[in-house]
Amino acid sequence: MKKELIALLCRKSFRFSETPAFKLVSGRMSRFYVNCKPTTLSPRGMFLTGHLMFAAIQDSGASAVGGLTFGADPIAMATAFASELKGHPVKAFSIRKDQKDHGIVKWVEGDIHHGEKVVVIDDVATTGGSTIKAIERARSEGLEVVRAVVLVDRQEGGVDNIRAHVSDTTAIITRDELVDCWKQMEK
């Protein structure tokens, strides 16, 4: 499954240039561009991502998986769906970028309650800032973050930065794996 997901990401979500050609959120230019949404929102990508993410979290003891909207949302939903298929249901949740100012004011949406063990996920980690923000907001809502998992590690320090907040942090796919796939596809 992982090899197939890497190939799908290469076709739908990854771009590579020998010189820095892609502007990142930080404003910095990069040789690599990763936008997982075309993959995670496709039927096959959702299937593969959900199963691989579930495999990465199933031994965590967590009852729910989620992260900062919008990057984590399709992955969390796919993971919850795969977990039900596997007979070990894990709920999905979403963390807002901006706090609601009406109704019940909270950061986290979903069938989730104070004290639950959760895994915070993200689609891509560069510096890890979005994932760290999600971890902080989950904790502020009384959730116990037991693991963090990113789908793609750009290998620019993000996973290590996240690990400073959640020691059990991992990535499913690395930038190097995507570059290797991209180079094979270019031949």
Automatic annotation (TrEMBL):
<dbReference type="GO" id="GO:0019856">
    <property type="term" value="P:pyrimidine nucleobase biosynthetic process"/>
</dbReference>
<comment type="similarity">
    <text>Belongs to the purine/pyrimidine phosphoribosyltransferase family. PyrE subfamily.</text>
</comment>
<keyword id="KW-0808">Transferase</keyword>
<comment type="pathway">
    <text>Pyrimidine metabolism; UMP biosynthesis via de novo pathway; UMP from orotate: step 1/2.</text>
</comment>
<dbReference type="GO" id="GO:0000287">
    <property type="term" value="F:magnesium ion binding"/>
</dbReference>
<keyword id="KW-0665">Pyrimidine biosynthesis</keyword>
<dbReference type="InterPro" id="IPR029057">
    <property type="entry name" value="PRTase-like"/>
</dbReference>
<feature type="binding site">
    <location>
        <position position="126"/>
    </location>
    <ligand>
        <name>orotate</name>
    </ligand>
</feature>
<comment type="subunit">
    <text>Homodimer.</text>
</comment>
<feature type="binding site" description="in other chain">
    <location>
        <position position="97"/>
    </location>
    <ligand>
        <name>5-phospho-alpha-D-ribose 1-diphosphate</name>
    </ligand>
</feature>
<feature type="binding site">
    <location>
        <position position="96"/>
    </location>
    <ligand>
        <name>5-phospho-alpha-D-ribose 1-diphosphate</name>
    </ligand>
</feature>
<dbReference type="InterPro" id="IPR023031">
    <property type="entry name" value="OPRT"/>
</dbReference>
<dbReference type="InterPro" id="IPR000836">
    <property type="entry name" value="PRTase_dom"/>
</dbReference>
<feature type="domain" description="Phosphoribosyltransferase">
    <location>
        <begin position="77"/>
        <end position="167"/>
    </location>
</feature>
<feature type="binding site" description="in other chain">
    <location>
        <begin position="122"/>
        <end position="130"/>
    </location>
    <ligand>
        <name>5-phospho-alpha-D-ribose 1-diphosphate</name>
    </ligand>
</feature>
<keyword id="KW-0460">Magnesium</keyword>
<feature type="binding site">
    <location>
        <position position="100"/>
    </location>
    <ligand>
        <name>5-phospho-alpha-D-ribose 1-diphosphate</name>
    </ligand>
</feature>
<feature type="binding site">
    <location>
        <position position="102"/>
    </location>
    <ligand>
        <name>5-phospho-alpha-D-ribose 1-diphosphate</name>
    </ligand>
</feature>
<keyword id="KW-0328">Glycosyltransferase</keyword>
<comment type="function">
    <text>Catalyzes the transfer of a ribosyl phosphate group from 5-phosphoribose 1-diphosphate to orotate, leading to the formation of orotidine monophosphate (OMP).</text>
</comment>
<dbReference type="InterPro" id="IPR004467">
    <property type="entry name" value="Or_phspho_trans_dom"/>
</dbReference>
<feature type="binding site">
    <location>
        <position position="154"/>
    </location>
    <ligand>
        <name>orotate</name>
    </ligand>
</feature>
<dbReference type="Pfam" id="PF00156">
    <property type="entry name" value="Pribosyltran"/>
</dbReference>
<protein>
    <recommendedName>
        <fullName>Orotate phosphoribosyltransferase</fullName>
        <ecNumber>2.4.2.10</ecNumber>
    </recommendedName>
</protein>
<dbReference type="GO" id="GO:0044205">
    <property type="term" value="P:'de novo' UMP biosynthetic process"/>
</dbReference>
<dbReference type="GO" id="GO:0004588">
    <property type="term" value="F:orotate phosphoribosyltransferase activity"/>
</dbReference>
